[in-house]
Amino acid sequence: GAGVSQSPSNKVTEKGKDVELRCDPISGHTALYWYRQSLGQGLEFLIYFQGNSAPDKSGLPSDRFSAERTGGSVSTLTIQRTQQEDSAVYLCASSAHQGAGNTIYFGEGSWLTVV
Amino acid sequence: AQSVTQPDIHITVSEGASLELRCNYSYGATPYLFWYVQSPGQGLQLLLKYFSGDTLVQGIKGFEAEFKRSQSSFNLRKPSVHWSDAAEYFCAVVGNTGGFKTIFGAGTRLFVKA
């Protein structure tokens, strides 16, 4: 596609429910990132996929968070048993191929509110 | 592991005044450095990036940044700020060995007053 697409754009869920956030990267991009941005906070790294390599999960805040990337393209971030502190914007980004100099392109984000 | 520090949480400048946003990084070698901007209601957009060569890099919207190895800094500058520059600015670093994970600073929010 033309850009990184995320869905849903907004999600309100009850505490304790599971949520899934989807990311469609730019076609052909092999690197995919998930970041979290809480109100007034910076960008918190969550997880990074690069091609067929094992993902870097070092930023996932707890075992309630998981992500997968199917077929090297679409990614799903799953949050189980959501808590109010999970409320944030979840940003997905992708870049063309492995290499430190590649620009990463962000989606518009998925706004998650846990009530 | 690499890290990025943006010491200023927010900065206020008058329209037409010059701007400098600070960014310090921590990395054992020369990293790849980026500045991104997040305008209200919009996604993150790349302003400029540094890989090697000339330490002064030009970006979009009249921004520039200078890499100073001795100070581990990559400060963003603009000679004359416009009201439309009000946004959140993020400095980012990517290590050039293994992983190539992009790490962002906490961001600096720029307010522009008339």
Notable characteristics:
heterodimer; A: 115 residues; 6-stranded mixed beta sheet; 4-stranded antiparallel beta sheet; globular; B: mainly beta
How does the overall form of chain A come out from the CA principal axes?
Answer: globular
Helix percent band of chain A: under 10%
Following the backbone from N to C, one meets helices and strands of chain B in this order, namely EEEEEEEEEEEE
Q: Write the element-wise H/E pattern of chain A from the N-terminal end onward.
A: EEEEEEEEEE
Describe, in plain words, how this protein is organized in 3D.
In chain A, strands 2, 4, 5, 8, 9 and 10 form a 6-stranded mixed beta sheet that branches. Chain A is globular, with a radius of gyration of 13 Å. Chain A has strands at 5-7, 10-13, 19-24, 31-37, 43-50, 65-69, 75-79, 88-95, 105-106, 110-114. The mean pLDDT of chain A is 90. By secondary structure, chain A is mostly beta strands. Chain B is globular, with a radius of gyration of 14 Å. Helices cover 0% and strands 52% of the residues of chain B. Chain B has strands at residues 3-5, 10-14, 19-21, 24-26, 32-38, 44-50, 56-58, 64-68, 73-78, 87-94, 102-104, 108-113. By secondary structure, chain B is an all-beta fold. In chain B, strands 2, 5, 6, 10, 11 and 12 form a 6-stranded mixed beta sheet that branches. Chain B has a 4-stranded antiparallel beta sheet with strand order 3-9-8-7, with no helix packed on it. Chain B has no helices and 12 strands. Classes of the chains: A mainly beta (115), B mainly beta (114). Chains A and B meet through strand 4 and strand 5 of A and strand 6 and strand 11 of B.
